[in-house]
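A reminder from the course coordinator: this example appears on the midterm review sheet, so study it carefully.

Given structure:
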């Protein structure tokens, strides 16, 4: 059924019910002449006036959805006219359209300034009932019942619909919030993955680049040293493959994972920075280490995540020095004397080309900054007075941070 046909279905039903009531009223009078019932028959002009009023009401109901207040008042006014033309007790047949209009008003009308319409409609129905000869109390009940009851039902249904719509909107909002959280978590994990891949690749590939540059000059002058450098390049390639395999294994959620080798299982902590420096020194980079310790365990009060941040900072700083300042002299200083924090600093002298790193800030420094923020550490970096570069990470101790928070 088309929308235009559905629009006229309810008005047609209202008109049919009204006509049946208007037609049956005189028949009831013929069946029981002594009944206290006053209604004109088809031989009276008032009966045909009632038929015309029913038709006008039915036509008006077709616009009840777009003009609910106006149609409610108009259909109620037809009841008043019915009382004036002398429909008598048959004036009640005109209430069918008023009931439909009042119900439609409850479903669709705005709450703001539309309330005078139902009040006016109730008064018009009551006055029409009084003009038909009914007592005042009957007119009041008729006005409240014909207008108030269907209007209340319409308002209740409208409230139910709005409640269901609000609940559905809330569910959609929760689903959208959950999806946003999932996307944020995925983006966070993607960033962490990219950071780890960058650190692994930068460390190993920088060493490979330095060693291959040396091989180019040694292959003719010192074949034995070139062979050793080739072996070191092979070790670096194996190391990067092992590290990448280990990272991918952490990302797998099913299936067997190969057991990592002892070299790939080396903890990335403060205690293993010395081994990291040894590997870098084996790659041909001049690196020295200076550890200032209070005498107890290195990095006491520094959590594993903060130790990983310090380890990665040293690894990335040495890789940057090899990549951007070849031939540089690097120094790694681990200051563990301050009871409130641990300081790790990597400095390098100007390279053979005299380049500085402040013009080559990339993802390495971004990764350092992210790890520092995660561990409430402070990262500082910049050129030194001699033209080199310095990266300093200050990591607060857990016990000191707890005391400060207390």
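Designed residues:
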């Amino acid at each position: 059924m088309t929308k235009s046909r559905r629009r006229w279905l309810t008005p047609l039903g209202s008109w049919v019910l009204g006509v049946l009531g208007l037609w049956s009223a005189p028949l009831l009078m013929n069946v029981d002449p002594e009944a206290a019932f006053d209604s004109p028959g088809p031989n009276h002009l008032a009966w045909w006036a009632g038929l015309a009023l029913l038709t006008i009401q039915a036509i008006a109901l077709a616009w009840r959805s777009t003009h609910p207040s106006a149609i409610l008042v108009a259909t109620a006014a037809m009841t008043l006219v019915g009382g004036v033309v002398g429909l008598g007790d048959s004036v009640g047949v005109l209430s069918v359209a008023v009931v439909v209009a009042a119900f439609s008003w409850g479903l669709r009308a705005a709450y703001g300034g539309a309330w005078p319409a139902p009040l006016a409609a109730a008064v018009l129905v009551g006055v029409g009932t009084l003009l038909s000869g009914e007592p005042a109390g009957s007119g009041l009940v008729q006005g409240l019942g014909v207008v108030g009851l269907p209007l209340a039902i319409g308002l209740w249904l409208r409230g139910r619909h709005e409640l269901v719509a609000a609940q559905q909107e809330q569910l959609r909002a929760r689903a959208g919030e959950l999806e946003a959280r999932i996307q944020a978590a995925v983006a966070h994990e993607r960033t962490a993955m990219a950071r780890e891949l960058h650190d692994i690749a930068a460390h190993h590939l920088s060493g490979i680049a330095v060693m291959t540059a040396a091989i180019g000059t040694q292959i003719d002058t010192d074949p034995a040293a070139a062979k050793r450098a080739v072996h070191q390049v092979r070790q670096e390639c194996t190391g990067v493959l092992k590290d990448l395999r280990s990272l991918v294994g952490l990302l797998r959620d099913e299936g067997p994972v190969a057991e990592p080798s002892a070299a790939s299982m080396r903890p990335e902590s403060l205690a293993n920075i010395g081994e990291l420096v040894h590997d870098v020194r084996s790659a041909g980079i001049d690196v020295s280490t200076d550890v200032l310790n209070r005498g107890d365990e290195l990095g006491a009060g520094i959590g594993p995540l903060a130790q990983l941040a310090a380890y990665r900072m040293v690894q990335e700083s040495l890789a940057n020095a090899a990549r951007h300042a070849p031939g540089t002299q690097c120094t790694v200083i681990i200051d563990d004397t301050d009871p409130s924090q641990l300081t790790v600093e990597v400095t390098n002298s100007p390279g053979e080309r005299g380049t500085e790193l402040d013009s080559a800030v990339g993802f390495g420094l971004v990764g350092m900054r992210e790890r520092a923020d995660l561990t409430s550490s402070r990262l500082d970096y910049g050129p030194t007075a001699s033209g080199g570069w310095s990266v300093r990470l200050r990591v607060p101790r857990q016990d000191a941070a707890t005391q400060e928070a207390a």
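Residues 136-221 form the longest helix (86 residues). The CA atoms of residues 23 and 120 lie 29 Å apart.
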